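Recap from last week: sequence in, structure out.
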Amino acid sequence: MKKTIAVTVLSMCLSFAAGIALADRVRDWHDLEAVHKHVQEAIHELDHAREANHYDMAGHGAKAEEHLRAAEHELHDAVEAIRAER
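Predicted structure tokens:
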């Protein structure tokens, strides 16, 4: 069960990174804002998964949360930068 959750979280992070790398240039900040919201939801779901496993995920849950929080921060900054351009 713990490995399944860790693999799921890791695949979410990798999918997100691949999506950013392959995405076309965003012209509308609403698109980024939606992604930002999804990352926030992923952080919330990850917290529930970690809690259900008594936070014992060999450090992988904490590392995944760290990466998701970094992505959330960067998306927030990107949305603000696009808003400032307009």
